[in-house]
Design goal:
Length: about 230
Amino acid sequence: MNNKELVFVWSAKIRMFHWVNVICILLLMAIGLIIFNAKMLGISVDAKISLKTWHVLIGYVFAINLLFRLLLGWIGKGFERFAKMLPFMSGFISDLKAFKANTNKVYQGHNPVGKLMVAMLLVGMINQMITGLLLASTDIYYPPLGNYFAGQIAVDKTAIESIKPYSKNNVDPQAYQQMRDIRYPFVYMHVDGFYFLLGLIPLHIAAVVYAERKHKQGLVSAMINGHKYLPKD
């Protein structure tokens, strides 16, 4: 490491987002898989509702954390900003060509391929956030739109609180089916988004391992202490 020096790259806010995001995604995927296979696993209706409740509550933490990161992309500093982390057209193509011509080139932030990965991960996570919130609203009637949808399907609009998940009490069958029709495409978007992220995450980890073995920059520790080992020149 004599020819390298510690350079500060990732702020505390970026590092906090990253690890909260990792924990949330792992929990959401694990609980989501159990819910998806609930029938095969012999899980009762009450247990399934409980699992969905936990899935939604963790989803709120995931959503708040992601919105915080998106806000940083606009108002943050240095590598917090989108201009430093996303593959914008201005100069990106030339940067990508330069990287392909010299894969030994070292970057303080993300290299061009890393920027593409970050963009795809963000798209996948935003999809999961939006579709997940809609599903939470139409399945167990949680915010942000749960009260609205419960009111739409209620026979007695003055007793919306009686609308419960998997219960037909005070539910208009026709209105309920209309709500399910609205929900239908979002279910597929959420499930497909899960598989999309499931494919990207191992690629992301493999790329980090490959880059670390090649450049020895301390990529993992950089997401803990914020510093990379970069050439002195």
